[in-house]
Amino acid sequence: MRLTLVGRRSHPLQKVAERVRACGSEAHVAAADLTVPGAPAGVVDLAVARFGGIYTMVNNAGNVRAGRLEQVPGKRSSPRSR
Q: Are 9 and 34 in contact (CB under 8 A)?
């Protein structure tokens, strides 16, 4: 398994990365605030450059909006594929 771990603070991510590596998987840490415009695209670019692509993406943020994706307010960007 190859993971790119993203969060605002690097130190907690490093601890998780150490545990992932101890299980025999690869982990790369990227400290980023995904609320900053351009940051999500930068993280995607980083993961693609590091591992050659993205198979699955999990967003485990503390902010939840209920509803169908097309009904949730907010700006969306088009999907990125490589």
A: no
Token pair, residue 74, equals 């907010």
Question: What is the C-alpha R_g of the chain?
Answer: 14
CB atoms inside a 10 Å sphere around CB 6: 24
Q: What is the pLDDT of residues 17-45, one digit of tens each?
A: 999 999 999 999 999 998 888 998 999 99
Cβ neighbors of 28 (< 8 A, separation 6 or more) are 2, 3, 4, 5, 17, 46, 47, 50, 51
* Model confidence, pTM: 0.70
| Helix/strand/coil for 51 | helix
